[in-house]
Design brief:
Strand content: 5-15%
Shape: elongated
Number of strands: 2
Distance between the termini: 54 Å
Length: 68
């Protein structure tokens, strides 16, 4: 079966083809790649905080970033 015929129900209840899903993922990855370095680090720290609070794990490192 081709990518154009396979249908997927998204989290926001849209029905899209597998091809459209891959195109959206590619667009998202390009947008993320173009973010400034500082924004990527800010997002990384937010993910570290999320991982720390997820299950109260103590072995997660959260960077302490100071605004300069």
């Amino acid at each position: 079966m081709s990518e154009e015929k396979i249908k997927i129900l998204t989290k926001d209840n849209r029905i899209i083809t597998l091809k459209e899903l891959f195109e959206e993922q590619e667009k998202t990855h390009k947008e993320q790649a173009s973010l400034p370095f500082e924004e990527k680090i800010r997002i990384l720290v937010e993910l570290q905080k999320l991982a720390l609070n997820w299950g109260n794990r103590k072995n997660v490192i959260v960077w302490d970033i100071k605004d300069v």
